[in-house]
Amino acid sequence: AIRAALPDLAIDLVCAPAMGGLIIGHEVARAFGVRFIFTERDGEGNMSLRRGFAITPGERVLIVEDVITT
Q: Which of 28, 44, 51, 63 fits a 20 to 30 Å CA distance from 22?
């Protein structure tokens, strides 16, 4: 449904928060045919890219959130 609602959206990757956003983020990325990465809380409680994930300057990112809480 997200892909159908945004047919002309040009993105390079989808990013979502772990844990709740993993499945929906992955499926949105699959629908767009782009790679998927996720964020996790670091030792100080901040959301950050870990596990070797990186965003290259200039890449267009769609952020998919499962709920709005923080």
A: 44
Sheet hosting strand 35-41, strand order edge to edge = 47-49, 35-41, 13-17, 61-63
C-beta pairs of 51-57 under 8 Å, 24+ apart in sequence: 55/13, 55/15
Looking from the CA of 69 toward its CB, the CA atoms found within 13 Å total: 7
pLDDT-derived band at 70, boundaries 50, 70, 90: low
What is the chain's mean pLDDT, rounded?
Answer: 90
CA 45, 40, 3, 66 dihedral sign is negative
Q: Which residue has the tokens 């959206």?
A: 9
Distance CA 21, CA 23 (A): 6
pLDDT of residue 66: 76
